Amino acid sequence: MRNLYSVIVPTSFKSTALSGTISPSLFNLHHLKYLDLSYNNFDSKISHHFANLKNLVYLNLSNSMFSGSITTQFANLSSLQYLDISCSFMVLDFSSFSYSISTFKESNKYSTSYVSTSSVSSTDTNWLRGLVNLKVLNLNGLDLSVASSTKNWAEPISFLANLRELYLSNCSISSSIPVHEFHNLSRLSVLGMDSNFLNSPIPIQLANFTSLSVLDLKNCDLQGSIPYLPKLQYIDVSVNRDFIVDLTHMFDHQWPKLQGLSITLTNVIGSIPSSISNASLLVYLFASGCSIQGSLPASILNLTQLKYIDLSFNNISGYLPSSISNLKNLEGLTLIQNNLQGPIPKSICRILSLKDLLLRANNLSGTIPSCISKLRNLHSFDITGNLIEGTVSLMSLFHKLNPIWISLSYNLLDVEINQYQLTSKFQELQTLALQSCNLRGHIPAFICNLTELVTLDLSSNNLIGAIPFCIFELPNLSYLDLSSNNLQGTLPHSINLTLLYPSSVLNLASNKLRGPLPLPPQNVGVFYLSENEFTGGISTETGERLSKATYVSLSGNKLSGSIPPSICSHVLMHLDLSNNQLSGTIPSTLNYCNSLDSLNLGTNLLIGNVPKGLEQAKKLKSLQLNENSLNGTFPSFIEQLQDIEVLDLGSNNFEGTIPTFIGSLHNLKILSLRSNMFNGSIPKEITGLRKLQILDLSINKLSGRIPEEIDNLEMLKSRPKTKLLLGDFISLMYSGVQLKMVTKGTMQEFLYLNNLNSGIDLSHNVLEGSIPKEIGLLKGLAVLNLSHNRLSDKIPTSVGSMIGLESLDFSFNKLSGDIPQSLTLIDALQVLNLSYNNLSGRIPTGLHFDTLSGDGDSAYIGNAFLCGIPPRKSCEGAPSTSTDPNLLNDEDDQEDAKEKWMFYGVVVLGYGVGFWGLFFVLRLRKEKWWFGYWRCIDTMALIIVGCMSKN
């Protein structure tokens, strides 16, 4: 019977699915033995009239949109041998997938989940008692949450003595495996209870089920470890993150029948032991993402029955052994993202059965063995992200093969493509990934003949010329990435991509493409055309199509006009229109973008207020509206954005006070309000932002004192040990954080920010009082700029504790007293500016500016009456002391500017008298000129001292 069932393949296509209700006349067929109504759209309750079909042997109602509760509908069908009323099917859930943007490594954090096709439940299982001839029972997806909460809930199943296969997956069972209720199932060979809430160990009593050969308990919150079950042929305990797998203990015993072991995403202790050879019949070994350590044991090469090995996403080190050719039956070798090194052994070419060779993201070196062309069955070859070098010809390497997947990206390779020889090759190729392979010249024309191509990635190369329009006509192309080349020309009016992926991906960023924006593909997921030369506006039709995307970036072009209101929808997660010439107001329809994770409209010509509708974007992490002409007060809706990490409202016309609720945004890392018209004091609540690493409030009208609680900024108290880029991967694209900030004396634009970037800039305000000594506790701070304020009193000695400081600017204040000796302790200091204060005394011993390391270092302590060792470095590169009226806070700053120009005048005059006067005196050789010259020098010295003392 089982072979008969296996050839029945019901269709799930809507065009062939039945709908409506089942005709009552069906239940008059009393002699009916076989009935398959699976994968239809009945959308009705399961009829009680099924009880009339007492001669049924086979009944399949799976995934047919039935609903309601099962009570007695099947209780009288004692002849049934096969019953399938499942109402869900399994899919892989990658919602927790992540990608480290510091190490460029993936994580395989996925889980198995089920998609429900209908809602069917059963409050007890008593209706099963009479089905004594059942051999296969499939209840996958049936809601048994109420039934399983009662004692001995599975006892009726024990009456099914002939049962061979029992499937209870995704049934919301919240108890342990009811092994005692199953004690009569002596013929049971398959038990599937995956995707429930068992939260218990695997019972050792399962060893008593002598016929049990397949055990599927994946994604069940299992506890404990694998007991010794020598009769099993297949064990799947994958996706149980708290489940301990001690392979050494497990293989201390013989597993004479074990053919398949899946322990993916469990906790494996240590390495793969040499005793794994005790499972001599092993055919499938899936152990991805288990933190396996060490090297591959030599004994694994004795498992000559192995067909598939997947050890991806572990910490396996060492070399691929040349004796790997012992695995004569191997069809799939997957070792993605480990720490393997050395060359790919040539002996691998002797495994003629090999279909999939996936070695991505290791440290493999050497060259690609030319004998790869002997693997006539090879379909997938992926060595992306290694250190493999040499010149590779696709024709010579794959000319005898019929590959489906080729990925050579991110190595040290020079890939050559002879497009004429390849015209008739690769007719079944679905993926071609040649990122950063030093491709030159035009895009090969033969690509237009690859009608099965789904993924094409030629990014980060040296390709030139126009993109052949025929690429956009490939019938199966769903993912196209040609970014970071030197491509020119225009694009077709409308771009077509298919939907073999959940959504299509188009990435043409960082080229020299021009002309109007093309119409995006239907149901586009990623539309990335940033850093090109596109002109014109974003049409309403373009906006409507982009509303179906999750990632849209058009930044760094020459787009003009307004932002179309149609661009927003509930699926859009990332929108970047920055660095264009867009005008008008921000559309109020942003309230429809309730899934937004990142919004960047910076550096445009936008005006008006920020629409309140953005408060609907509760998931927003990054909001960048800088360098526009937006006005109004600080947007009040921002208080609702509790996930916000980056907030940049700089270089606009905002006014009023900074609200105290800013301190409630506990995830905030970057806050830039520079160059606005904010007034009032700095709210002390801002110091409660424990994750804050950059605070820029410069060029405003802020007054009052610097909050003494500034030491509460926990993130700035130490330097992070590891470097991590800020941003998120959304729809396979990186959404980075950009920022402009004065650091080391000059305005710098950061295209990418990481957690090591840190700074506080409160310059060009009207702050007064003393610098709080608590600021010295911010030992991780790299940039501190308090210049152009009214700060007074002494520089606190605690500043010397800020060992992470690279740039320190206290210029244009009213600081007095000596320069603290403690400044000499800041070894990282590259820029120091204390000019235009009332400092006195000597330059501290050890503050020799030639000890400040790095190119472009500078120290500037001019306009201070200091004596002692003069600076040995020039003032080139020192922070700007511009007297632009827009940067002057009040009359005091204007007075400072006057004094500065007077100082420069005195210096010029002194230079003229000192150098040219001496020159002419020596030239004339007259004694009376000598006396006059030195009297002038004395007078000039008195003038200079008088000017200095006035400060």
Automatic annotation (TrEMBL):
<keyword id="KW-0472">Membrane</keyword>
<keyword id="KW-0325">Glycoprotein</keyword>
<dbReference type="Pfam" id="PF00560">
    <property type="entry name" value="LRR_1"/>
</dbReference>
<feature type="transmembrane region" description="Helical">
    <location>
        <begin position="901"/>
        <end position="922"/>
    </location>
</feature>
<keyword id="KW-0677">Repeat</keyword>
<protein>
    <submittedName>
        <fullName>Leucine-rich repeat</fullName>
    </submittedName>
</protein>
<keyword id="KW-0675">Receptor</keyword>
<keyword id="KW-1133">Transmembrane helix</keyword>
<keyword id="KW-0732">Signal</keyword>
<dbReference type="Pfam" id="PF13855">
    <property type="entry name" value="LRR_8"/>
</dbReference>
<comment type="similarity">
    <text>Belongs to the RLP family.</text>
</comment>
<dbReference type="InterPro" id="IPR032675">
    <property type="entry name" value="LRR_dom_sf"/>
</dbReference>
<dbReference type="InterPro" id="IPR003591">
    <property type="entry name" value="Leu-rich_rpt_typical-subtyp"/>
</dbReference>
<dbReference type="GO" id="GO:0005886">
    <property type="term" value="C:plasma membrane"/>
</dbReference>
<keyword id="KW-1003">Cell membrane</keyword>
<keyword id="KW-0433">Leucine-rich repeat</keyword>
<keyword id="KW-0812">Transmembrane</keyword>
<dbReference type="InterPro" id="IPR001611">
    <property type="entry name" value="Leu-rich_rpt"/>
</dbReference>
